[in-house]
Amino acid sequence: MLFKFSSVESASLLIWEHPREFEYCGQMYDIVEAKTCGDTTFYWCFADHRETRINKAIEQAVAKATGQDPVRKNQTERLTDFFKTLFQEVQFNWQAGNPPSAIVHYASCILNYSSLTSSPPSPPPKVVQLFI
Fold first, then answer.
1. Would you say 27 and 47 are in contact if contact means Cβ atoms under 8 Å apart?
2. Per-residue pLDDT tens over the stretch 13-39
3. Is residue 84 domain-resident?
4. How many CB atoms lie within 10 A of CB 130?
5. Is 44 helix (H, G, I), strand (E, B) or coil?
6. Domain presence at residue 101
């Protein structure tokens, strides 16, 4: 495969692994021969598919380890959105000296029903056992 780059393109578009190997558009290339004519350099290369696969596997492992994996990130966002639908944030607004009306209402219900309490029946009910 033959590539032709200017010195500016070579510095900006190529990610150099070492002087005889670079990455271009996500693919690794091994340089067989290089020839410079003025500002332009010609690179005769072989595509290094094995190293490209290794680099992609490393990138994916690092992304998963750092939480940047797009699949996991999407799942986390969807799970967070689901939990938001289950729970509502209610702002608690309490002021000293003014009890909330629900507490006052509950307390008055306790006072109203306190007279309904009674003692257990006397004599206690008899227990009947059935033998089958």
1. yes
2. 999 998 999 999 999 999 999 999 999
3. no
4. 4
5. strand
6. no
Encoding tokens for residue 100?
């909330």
Strands 21-24 and 2-6 come out as unpaired
Q: 43, 34 in Cβ contact below 8 A? A: yes
- Torsion angle, alpha carbons of 70, 76, 81, 84, to 10: -160
In terms of Cα–Cα distance, which of 104, 85, 81, 101 is closest to 93?
101
Counted domains in the chain:
1
Going by pLDDT thresholds of 50, 70 and 90, the confidence category of residue 101 is low
The residue behind tokens 């008899």 is: 126
Average of pLDDT values for 98-123?
A: 56
pTM: 0.51
Question: What is the domain extent for residue 20?
Answer: 2-53
> Do β-strands 40-47 and 21-24 pair in parallel, antiparallel, or remain unpaired?
unpaired
Q: Tokens in use for 41?
A: 């350099």
